[in-house]
Amino acid sequence: MKPTISFVLQLSPATAYKDLEAVARNLLDGLDVLLTSGLVKCSVYMDGPTLRMLRKVAKPLAFGKIKNGIREGLLEFLGGGFYDPMLPLFPEEVQRLQLEQHCTLLRKFFDMEPQGYFNSSLVWEMDMTAVLAKSGFDYALVSEAAIQDALGRSTPTSGWFTIEDKGALMRIVPVSGELSRAIENDDLNWRKIAEPYCREGKSAVVLLDLPPEPSEIVAFFERLVDFVETNDVQTWPVGYTVNQLEPEGSLSYLMSAGRKLGLPASAKTCREMLIRRPEVNVLQKFFLSLFRRGRDSLSDEKFEVFCDRLIPAMSPIFFRDLANEEGMRCLNVRKWGFRYLLTASSALDSMMSFSGLRVEVCDFLLRGEKQIWMENSNMSSLLDYRAGGVLRLLCHKSSAVNLLNAWRDDGEPSLGFLDCLLPNVDMTPVQIGLALSLREYLLKDPYDYTISRSESGAEVQLLEEQGFTVGGKKGVFRVEKDYVLAPGASSISVKYTLSNSTYMDSKCFFGTIFELGLLGKSGGRIVIDGFDLKWDGENPLVYPEAKEMKIQDFAQGCVVTMKFDSPASVFVGPVFGASSSAAPEVYQGLRIYPFWRTALTVMDEKKFGISVSVSGR
Amino acid sequence: MRSDLIDIQVEDYGEDVEITLSGSLGAFQLPAVREKIDMLADGPGCFFFLNLSHAHFKVNDYLDLFLELLNKLQAQNSKLVLIFDSEELDEYFAKYRNIFEIFPSRSAYKDSGMSKQLQQIGIHYAVKTGIRLSPSVAIAGALLIVGWAITLFLIVAAQGREIADKQAQIIALQAQKERYVREIDRLESSIGPLRKLGVVQDTTMLSSFGIIQDWVTYLEYLENSRREK
């Protein structure tokens, strides 16, 4: 039997952040190999930036040849989002915007409209049916596992199915996971695996990732031609097979968590990522907040310009729990994600001529609890007053950097101004680092808040009694924590007033933890009171009696300055994460813990203050 | 906490303060909303815009709250402007339509007339600074300042023109000088070979001072010429 295969070729989204020009040049050469051979008929998906680069570097007649290939049915370009986003994570308006932008580009470059929808993550939720139908797509590619799940069977599925939602119809084409893996890994048993897929003249859809290295792309296309020629395989673009074959049946419900997201096999939807990873969640909620604010306040024309700045943050790499620059487990990827959002935030401010202060009490993280968003034209922060008055985000707009951008393997978010008491015993820096990493001895009870506005700025006053257990002794401190933000200032300051409201003396060390996504491979330095620490990035240390601390991050081009009202001891240590194969060894951020000796007798009171300012290079 | 169903936002633009209230507001939320609005209204600001576009009121008790807020802000010599553009809210505020100022957006209020806004700023600052100006004095003062500004501008413009003329003249003279220097160089180079041959006499050396090279010789020359006389 001669197997019929529909190859779908796609580029990894991470490619866009490497040498895209070299990738595009090689891609053109590879397509040339494919079209010249005339043996392989396949479908291709490229995101918007890659298509634009392709156009930029194309030699004369190269696009003419591709257009000819499309007309002759050798090549089919699949549609999708401009930045290949996972659509279910975003509002419908922005979903349609992305689909429309990608479609416009294909129409402009190749005089064609895409028939099929493709998303490299292969996520699917029912709401997409109506959106895709409205955007003019005939069929969509979904993982075979999701269709098997919907049909309640584990045997190979091929051909196409129909699905209906809100009166809209969509044809669903399964991408064969097993056969794709077999062909990708040169498994000699591939023909045996392909057999059940290709029964009764059906075509199996095989998804192949193009190599991200530019030098390997042409060789990949040559191997593909060679594979088809040697094995005598019949190939068709996916669109052709959908038009030729009869439907296999209807599906009542379909949900796919997608592939290559770093989610466990038990996950049913890509939304699971928002629950598992607070970094991804906060990035998505920040996106939604900016989008809604822009929608409410800008005219249509300005909103379009603003969206152009905002939508790169929808790229799938910002919604994956993967390392090696493929997902948010990588510090650089987190930095890129927030850079896009903060650039868009600055653009929004300038379009709205916003130069004052904004304080918003809202359910920013959409989890049924309020947080306080504080913002001026230079800084923005998210204060979680119900979790010990901590900061979840602390962003500097002109450097486009979110300081609280570390990564914790235990799935907890990285925080700033997380108050912690250490027992009054001798502890080595390693022991302190361990206690801070395990988040022991925290003051994390919910606070009551008051917002007061004055000529000099806005103040959020938090006040509550905080219970603690240190060294086997229980105690209660009455803590007043005041966040102060002035209009136009690039700094935020916090004033603490601690009073011992029990009838016992209390001796301990009070301090506050910052988990910063700074330094790392790109380099930088830490200077305390003019003294360069020359920190090796691995071993924790404690510097006594510091008044001012500067952290210079060369790659991000920012300097973070912490000033202490009274001299503080400062702990400096790394936040390490696990790599895919070994013990925690991947640098994920910097842990800073300024602390003071706090011997409070009965009804005694102590005051501390920290100001964090950020400046450009 | 039931009060957590509401979202409240304050945007401070200096003189303008926009408080946005959104959510579904029933009887349970009233105390929390009252507390929060009082808290946010207790600060600086001349114009308080209360944006209710995303609010839905389930009970009429909120009207009293807004009337109290209006009283409070008037006592602070600030102005309360309600912002919304929906029929539902139009109906809700229908009874007090003549008491509240209602506009569809902050910019619509700003475009609605300068004089009332200036008057409001005047009232606000009169109380704040203790300086009271009658409209005629204010207009006269403003005219005086504008007159000064125009005079200053005219003087600067006239001086600027003069400087530009002078600069043009200097540039023209410099160009002329360079042209002459080039011409002289050209002429000297053309007669150089003839002068070497002795065909042309160097008239520059014929002058009385032509052979004088230093001060001593010059003084001797003066002495000699005086003696000869």
The dominant shape of chain B is: rod-shaped
Largest beta-sheet details of chain B: 6 strands, mixed
Average predicted local confidence, pLDDT of chain B: 83
Termini gap of chain B: 121 Å
Under CATH, the topology of the largest domain in chain B can be stated as Transcription Regulator spoIIAA
Number of helices of chain B: 7
Which structural class should the secondary elements of chain B be placed in?
alpha/beta
CATH superfamily of the largest domain in chain B: STAS domain
Strand content of chain A is 25-35%
* Percentage of residues in DSSP E strands of chain B: 5-15%
Order of helices and strands of chain B: EEHEEHEHEHHHH
Structural class of chain A: alpha+beta
- CATH class group of the largest domain in chain A: Alpha Beta
What characteristic shape of chain A results from the CA principal axes?
elongated
Q: Which residues of chain A sit in consecutive blocks of at least 5 with pLDDT less than 50?
A: none
Arithmetic mean of pLDDT of chain A: 89
Number of helices of chain A: 15
* CATH hierarchy class name of the largest domain in chain B: Alpha Beta
User: Largest interface here, residues on each chain?
Assistant: A-B, 21 and 18 residues
Span of the ends, CA to CA of chain A: 66 Å
* Overall CATH architecture of the largest domain in chain B: 2-Layer Sandwich
What does this structure look like?
The complex is a heterodimer of chains A (617) and B (229). Chain A is an alpha+beta fold and 617 residues long. Chain A folds into 2 domains: 4-251, Alpha-Beta Barrel (7-stranded beta/alpha barrel); 414-616, Beta-galactosidase, Chain A, domain 5, CATH 2.70.98. Chain A has 15 helices and 27 strands. In chain A, strands 16, 17, 18, 19, 20, 21, 22, 23, 24, 25, 26 and 27 form a 12-stranded antiparallel β-sheet that branches. In chain A, strands 1, 2, 3, 8 and 9 form a 5-stranded parallel β-sheet that branches. In chain A, strands 4-5-7-6-10 form a 5-stranded mixed β-sheet. In chain A, strand 11 (357-362) and strand 12 (371-376) form a beta hairpin. The longest helix of chain A is centred in the middle third of the chain and has 22 residues, at 331-352. The N and C termini of chain A lie far apart (66 Å). Chain B has 2 domains: 2-129, Transcription Regulator spoIIAA (2-Layer Sandwich), CATH 3.30.750; 134-204. In chain B, strands 1, 2, 3, 4, 5 and 6 form a 6-stranded mixed β-sheet that branches. The longest helix of chain B has 63 residues, at 135-197. Chain B is rod-shaped. The model of chain B has no long low-confidence stretch (mean pLDDT 83). The interface between A and B is medium-sized, with 21 and 18 residues. Strand 11 (357-362) of chain A pairs antiparallel with strand 1 (7-13) of chain B, so a sheet runs across the interface.
